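Reopening: structure tokens for the zinc ion complex, inputs below.
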Amino acid sequence: MVTPINFLFSSFILFNSESYILMPPKLSLFIKTLGASHVAYSSNDEIRANADYIQGFSGDVTRILYHEVVHSWQWIGNGQAPLGLIEGIADFVRMKLGNKWDDSYYITAWFLDYYNGLRNGFVAKLTKKMGTEYSDDFFDQL
Ligand SMILES: [Zn+2]
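Re-run output (same inputs, fresh job):
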């Protein structure tokens, strides 16, 4: 498991230099009720996580926080960058630093796209093989 400190150091290494990122002098985390529409958000040097959401969340909460940590230091084109790109960069860093291939729908989709690019028809053949059982060995067999 990636610890928060390791995540920060590794993300700096991933981006090679502090000059590529917006380095906050400190980063504070607040866990409080935010309303049903928010899981968590980051603003400058503060991350706010929804206590109600986290209380009912059965997954690894650090994954949510890592995503928000990236938002705390990433540049956003002075507010002009598309939201999808901003969110994609946050998930890209999280993915590079510890996600597994089946951690989310999008990551799995990109993983399958990569495999399908190596061998056209891979996803169709994998789906067929999963008709009666599943094994990680299918990836080697196909
Ligand atoms: Zn985000």
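Strands lie at 28-32, 40-43, 46-50. Residues 3 and 62 are 8 Å apart (CA to CA). Marking as resolved unless the reporter disagrees.
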